[in-house]
Write a structure and sequence with these properties.
Number of helices: 16
Largest sheet: 9 strands, antiparallel
Number of strands: 18
Helix content: 25-40%
Structural class: alpha+beta
């Protein structure tokens, strides 16, 4: 469940200018280095003067596989450690183990790369990428590390490029633009030839369009420039309801989504979950002004609650509260679908969810949750700004409902879940439960999609951040947008490096 701050910033990723820096005058050739001479030239332009000398290392000479395009990733990591000694960590190091624990889901943390690289600048990202690409070492790129499935931003026996040290934040004097490093969980682009490029509505505008929804198929994003505004105190908090209030909640939610374009200060996420042997619902309310009872929430506030933390506070305080609902240390799975705004489909999805989850809800440490978030007409109208994006929603009819089904299983930690403080101390060790949970959540989505099609409220869009590993995200963008993404990928990555050597997350499938 994302707080308002996350919703706004995710929207900015699609709406506002993306900036990088061009470090070379070579334009048009986006292929990676083909040999050591080209690698040396690329690295020279980035300030590395003796890259080929690293090949004289006794450690590398002892590895008979260390030839161009055939080196093991372990040896490639050793070479990179020579070039960037302060940012490369092999599997035996304490730093490596600490970084492995920084993922949100256990499936990601269990995926073991040959080394982890923590570049401190876009230049170091480019150096790391160039070495990996030249020696054919598969890699993953980790930003926030919040994906649910293993291999999304981690890779077995490859090289994980972790952007957590790209933490710079800079606000201009007018306080209208903020530069945010990608380690802050945000986009500056390193392309397939190692160039660091500028992408916005005027420069490399096709790349800019593709990056707004196209995932990791085009380069490694290292900085995003966001349009910003001051945010004062606001209303926020969470209200807890018995799940038996679902009919009233769905009716109120349908009306809220319809009315929200007239009051864009309001945001709301509704969720149902199982805890302490009962089904419950909680609503995350946010209102961007310090008004205690905004009229747009009137229907919800008329429904009796079990508890509420609603208050006037600053965004930091409200966000800190909501982060308690996304603890690390779980096995996780996400899967998602999108529907037109309709109370009847919401009710049917709820019934399907309860029915299917009954077979898995009592697994040790289990927490199934059904989360619904609106994509209102006011949000969709912003998609066309600054050249538009690849999502294929600009022409959608009316507000949409984005649904995600989450299932979390704790490993061995004490945690707080939603508004009821529950301490769970279950150890989860039966990996065979994974497939049962995956099958159950998939069945919920499929039955929900079938029900929505019968009601005429199904929408093919799949929200990438909540998609399960096997879902076809780009088909949901429409065939024209998918083909345009493929053509842009061919232009900026002619050798398909980001398709083949970076296999994680969602790929365009151009080969």
């Amino acid at each position: 469940m994302l707080p308002l701050s996350s919703i706004l910033l995710l929207a900015y990723c699609f709406l506002f200018p993306l900036l990088a820096f061009i470090s070379t005058s070579e334009v048009g050739n986006f292929a990676p280095p083909r040999n050591l001479k080209e690698l040396q030239g690329s690295l020279n332009s980035l300030g590395i003067q003796d890259p080929v000398n690293a090949l004289e290392s006794p450690v590398l000479k002892a590895d008979a596989t260390f030839t161009l395009g055939q080196a093991s990733c372990k040896s490639t990591c050793t070479l990179l450690e020579y070039l960037l000694p302060e940012v490369v960590f092999l599997s035996a190091s304490t730093e490596y183990k600490q970084q492995q624990s920084s993922y949100w889901s256990n499936q990601q943390a269990e995926t073991q790369p040959a080394c982890r690289v923590l570049p401190g600048s876009a230049k170091e990202v480019a150096i790391t990428y160039l070495v990996a690409a030249t020696f054919n070492c598969k890699f993953a790129v980790k930003g926030g590390g919040h994906a649910a499935f293993g291999g999304a931003s981690s890779i077995e026996d490859g090289m994980t490029i972790d952007l957590q040290n790209l933490m710079s934040i800079s606000v201009n004097s007018e306080k209208t633009i903020t530069q945010v490093g990608a380690g802050n969980r945000w986009i500056n682009v390193v392309l397939a030839n190692g160039q660091i490029r500028n992408a916005n509505v005027n420069t490399n505008s096709d790349l800019y369009w593709a990056l707004r929804g196209g995932g990791n198929n085009f380069g490694i994003v290292t900085r995003l420039d966001l349009e910003t505004f001051p945010q004062g105190d606001m209303l926020g908090g969470v209200s807890l309801y018995p799940a038996t209030a679902n009919v009233s909640l769905f009716k109120a939610y349908q009306n809220f989504v319809t009315e929200q374009p007239q009051d864009p200060d309001a945001a709301l996420i509704i969720a149902f979950f199982y805890s302490q042997s009962q089904w419950l619902s909680n609503n995350n309310y946010e209102y961007a002004k310090p008004i205690r009872n905004p009229p747009i929430f009137r229907e919800f506030f008329a429904i009796p609650t079990m508890s509420s933390t609603g208050r006037i506070a600053n965004l930091t305080d409200i966000t800190a509260e909501l982060t308690t609902y996304n603890p690390s240390g779980f096995r996780e799975t996400y899967t998602t679908a999108t529907f037109k705004n309709d109370a009847e489909i919401q009710r049917q999805i709820f019934d399907i969810f309860i029915e299917e989850m009954n077979s898995v809800k009592d697994l040790p440490g289990a927490l199934p949750a059904l989360v619904m978030q609106p994509i209102s007409e006011s949000i969709i109208t912003h998609f066309s700004k600054n050249g538009g994006n690849a999502l294929g929603l600009a022409d959608a009819e009316g507000p949409l409902l984005r649904m995600s089904v989450l299932f979390l299983v704790e490993s061995s930690v004490l945690l707080t879940i939603t508004l009821i403080v529950v301490n769970l101390a279950f150890m989860w060790s039966n990996a065979t439960d994974d497939e049962k949970i995956y099958a159950t959540t998939s069945k919920v989505i499929q039955r929900s999609v079938d029900a929505a099609k019968k009601l005429g409220v199904y929408e093919k869009y799949i929200y990438q951040n909540y998609a399960a590993k096997g879902q076809d995200v780009f088909a949901g963008y429409g065939e024209a947008n998918r083909q345009r993404l493929i053509e842009i990928s061919k232009k900026y990555d002619p050798k398909s490096v980001f398709q083949k050597l970076q296999p994680g997350y969602f790929k365009l499938g151009r080969f």
